[in-house]
Amino acid sequence: MSEKTPPIQATKMMKKLMADHFLALDRAAAEGSPKVAWCTSVGPAELLIAMGFEVYYPENHGALLGATRMATDTIPVANALGYSPEICSYLTADVGAFLKGITPLTKAYGIKGVPKPDVLVFNTNQCRDVQDWFEWYGRHFNVPAIGVRTHRGVGEVRDYMVADVAQQIKDLIPTLEQVSGNKFDIDRLREVVGLSKQCTEQWRAVLEYGARVPAQMNFFDHTIHMAPAVVLRGRPEAIEYYDTLLAELVEREKAGYSAVPGERIRLYWDGMPVWGRLRMLAELMNELKAAIVCSTYCNSWIFGAFDANDPFESMARAYTELFIVRDEAYKENYMLEHVKRYGCQGIIFHDAKTCPNNSNSRYGLPQRFAEVHGVPSLVINGDLNDLRCFSDEQAKTNIEAFVEQIEEAAA
Amino acid sequence: MFFGGIDIGASATKAALIDDSGRLLGSAVLRSGVDFTGSAAKGMEMALAQAGLEAGQVEGVFACGYGRKNAAMAQETRTEIACHAAGAYHHFPQALTVVDIGGQDNKIIKLNAQGLRTSFKMNRKCAAGTGAFLEEMALRLDLPLESLNGLAEKATEEATLGAFCTVFTATEVLSKIRDGVKIEALVKGLFRSVVKRVMEMDIFEGTVIMTGGVAAHNPYLAEMLSLELGREVLLPPLPQLNGAWGAAILARDFRARQLASE
């Protein structure tokens, strides 16, 4: 086994893809064609692509603001505007950045600002905040903010829920036709859903490399390489990218590489990444020889239900089957199944101050994992973007102590 | 053979030297200040002098606490969670819930009968219920920190303080002063606040042990927690030194494993 893991080469291709994506958006916004649609990360992107829009994902921008730590300066701007520090810090970071006239896209791609939307399309499966977020921009640009209101606390996904969401997606079409000037084409939608399905299956295959012992990729790698599955699904480039990445992973496994050299401990991560502290956390985990091999967050872009033959129903099902909208029993079973399959010895729950929807430690789940399933857990307090809510020292001590505990038990 | 432990906390640095049996030979407590490396060195020097030992006679030193990476003399570091657990189990070898109230954070550590940690919790990113809370309140009340325990103990009444946040509690305290509430009652109310913050952190099982500087200087807190829990709350011989003592125990056990494998 190699003690030094060389970087993943496919990353270069991904950087180019992302640059192309943002430059295309910038061009479209400048030229007024094709039209630009903003979409939530787990929104009906396939429909927008099929209707000929360039699609921009503000949550991706929010994550970039977090990862570059620009969010620290932009969140207070939105707070001062009346958007509480308690609400989604993607929203506050993004709106604050817009008001300050700054974006990480400038440094990365030479782009002056985010692409002006012609329409904003949300899906509240992530949370209600995305709707408020998009409505702010809708008012600012005087463009339509439309969307899908999802079911929440879903146990079994029932047909009536699927039918409802499918109808809501269909109801978006007249507005999208009007804004884009294009007629809806069911065959084009079938094609895009088919491409998304392929992308999602490849992303699943990438994530499965975390199940190898030692893991070939970890959570921190996943947060980087998930970008095409988030912003380019439904497009052939994403499939080409994951083909390349998967081929490289085969070779890396043969060469005996591992995500964390000398892996001793395997962990599951639940909740949002702490975008501004990914490097610090990755280095800490490397030092502890602990690999986070699986996460609820990165698994959220696996949409197994997509079916090109039945695009509306399958999109509705895929976007309702998501972990984030499910009930506690489903979440417990889902996590348990993954903890077992990936050989995790413990769970780190990130309780993100501004993301209650994606913080699953608040209703006794860690305690149930310990008592019922014998899986130890750690809850760290923090946030996805607002580093005012995160203490490096407390997080480090907590994680180190958790790894000590697991090692003691294993010895 | 002799072993050392150094616990560089947010407020105080503690050093402990033990022999093979775990008996304490020398110790020191000093302010951590801003030079953690210097405080650690000085603390160990003081402990060595008290024990009548030279640094070269010490087989191994482990460090814990926020400044654990700054202890130049330490071979290994462990978290203060591991060390408080080891220290408490050394004195009370049974299933335990250890409550460590530190200068900056509180910890609840659960151990099984074999001394293995089964879980732990630290307070959220907030100083409510920690030593810093009592320090801030002592300042607001213009009282020496060391007088709090005696005042709480002799209180015949208790002020009810409802706020969670240290700053809001300070405001509440000021309004109680305006209302003529006695200082003793206020201090007891503050102690109750610490006990409540600790109790809402976890479920208490087994024998409850209270460690850390706050318990060392305010043993009445253990009495109040005991009454609230309806079970005995015990203090180790030197609660403030418990983490450093535990670090030394871990250094000793580590050396024993090394020798066994040679």
Keywords:
heterodimer, A: 411 residues, alpha/beta, Rossmann fold, 2 domains, four-stranded parallel beta sheet, 19 helices, 8 strands, B: 262 residues, Nucleotidyltransferase, domain 5, five-stranded mixed beta sheet, 9 helices, 22% strand, globular
CATH fold name of the largest domain in chain A: Rossmann fold
* Approximate helicity band of chain A: 40-55%
Ranges of chain B where pLDDT stays below 50 over 5 or more residues in a row are: none
Helix content of chain B: 40-55%
Q: Count structural domains of chain A.
A: 2
N to C succession of SSEs of chain A: HEHEHHHHEHEHHHHHHEHEHHHEHEH
CATH class label of the largest domain in chain B:
Alpha Beta
Order of helices and strands of chain B: EEEHEEHEEEHHHHEHHEH
Per CATH, the architecture of the largest domain in chain B is 2-Layer Sandwich
Average pLDDT of chain A? 96
Rg of chain A: 21 Å
Task: Count every helix of chain B, treating DSSP H or I runs of 4 or more residues as helices.
Answer: 9
Shape of chain B: globular
End-to-end distance of chain A: 23 Å
Bin the strand percentage of chain B: 15-25%
Name the assembly state: heterodimer
Distance between the termini of chain B: 17 Å
The pair of chains with the biggest contact is: A-B, 18 and 16 residues
Describe the structure.
The complex is a heterodimer of chains A (411) and B (262). Chain A has 411 residues and is of the alpha/beta class. Chain A is built from 19 helices and eight strands. Chain A folds into two domains: 179 residues, Rossmann fold; 218 residues, Rossmann fold (3-Layer(aba) Sandwich). In chain A, strand 1, helix 2 and strand 2 form a beta-alpha-beta unit. Chain A is globular, with a radius of gyration of 21 Å. In chain B, strand 2 and strand 3 form a beta hairpin. In chain B, the strands form two sheets. Chain B has a five-stranded mixed beta sheet with strand order 3-2-1-4-5. Chain B has a five-stranded mixed beta sheet with strand order 8-7-6-9-10. Chain B folds into two domains: 118 residues, 2-Layer Sandwich (Nucleotidyltransferase, domain 5); 143 residues, ATPase, nucleotide binding domain (Nucleotidyltransferase, domain 5). At the A-B interface, helix 19 of A face helix 2 and strand 8 of B.
